[in-house]
Amino acid sequence: MNGVVVDHAHRAIMKADAAFTDLSAAMKFAREQATSLVNLERAALADRTLTHEGALLQIANAAPKSGERVAMRLDAARAKAKAEIDGIAKRTASPPSPKGRCRPGA
Q1: What does the DSSP 8-state code read for residue 50?
Q2: Taking the CA of residue 14 as centre, how many other CA atoms within 13 Å lie in the half-sphere pointing to its CB?
């Protein structure tokens, strides 16, 4: 019987770890996308074949697309982590105290 409880707890921990690993990966992706935009800006502004306005337009077109990808990834990871937190809270919540009984120390 004890092995079943340990196995269930181990699976719950692995599931929680996966949710938070996804959140960490999404945050890493956001940093990578920000770095890519900075590199694009530097390259576009250094490109002598583009006018200054053309370089700014290239950057302005890339930024929202990058932001959408980041937002989608962060939102999905956040939802997964929140669902896991809510599940843990539900599994570990204690039942309400019976009505009409005095609580210790009350």
Answers
A1: S
A2: 6
Number of H helices, E strands in the chain: 2, 0
pLDDT for 18-71, tens place per residue? 878 999 999 999 999 999 999 999 999 999 999 999 999 999 999 999 999 999
Distances (CA, A) of 73 to 12, 34, 46, 67: 23, 14, 31, 10
pTM of the model: 0.67
pLDDT band at residue 16, thresholds of 50, 70 and 90? low
Q: How many CB atoms lie within 10 A of CB 16?
A: 15
Q: Is 30 exposed, middle or buried (0-12, 13-18, 19+ CB in 10 A)?
A: middle
First-last CA distance in the chain:
37
Give all strands (DSSP E) within the chain, no chain letters. Answer: none
Half-sphere exposure of 51 (CA within 13 A, CB side): 3
